[in-house]
Amino acid sequence: MRTVGFTQMKDGTAADYQLLQALEREHARGTAHRILRELQRQADESLTGYRITRLEHALQSATRARADGADDDWIVCALLHDLGDGLAPANHDRFAAEILRPYVRQECAWVVEHHGVFQSFYFGHFYGWDRHARDRYRGSPFFDSCAAFCERWDQSSFDPAYRSEPLEAFAETVERVFARTAYDPAVIRDGVVIGVPRGSCASDT
Ligand SMILES: [Fe+2]
Ligand SMILES: [Fe+2]
User: Fold this and answer.
1) Which residues surround ligand 2, an ion (CB under 5 A)?
2) Is 159 a residue whose pLDDT tops 60?
């Protein structure tokens, strides 16, 4: 295997950095695969106490999003929104948002980034927190999308009786999203609000 000649980056040559750039591009093509592998890990390395694993929660969220007619951006965000549970328990929402941000609509990355505080609407008061903490984001164009994401796909997806699609059923969608050009303005669509499709029932908070 070819490697660079340097032991300190400051000594690298143009040829070294061209080699690294080519290898990094190749590596980036494996991102979707690595993400799916990480998700699979959540089948057994999971938070306990819930009635389902974190993988099942992810699958349930994504299955509901797909069933509601959501687009690729929403489906992948629903699938990955808790990916940081294992490595970033104190800021798992932002962890996932940073993975998704280059490849999905700004609206969707914002929703993943803020879903933690929006989710606390459902339980914050049991811990003495302000369950209305999400209200500080009322001025955001993405507020309603985040409230609906949590209501329809996140807080609702802890049901052991729900029949989710398997992880393999989402592999192609994940591959497609992470094959996009990073930060492509046509993907990011600054400020555009598509909203969460309401599917067949409507009980948004
Ligand atoms: Fe979460
Ligand atoms: Fe969640």
Assistant:
1) 82, 154
2) yes
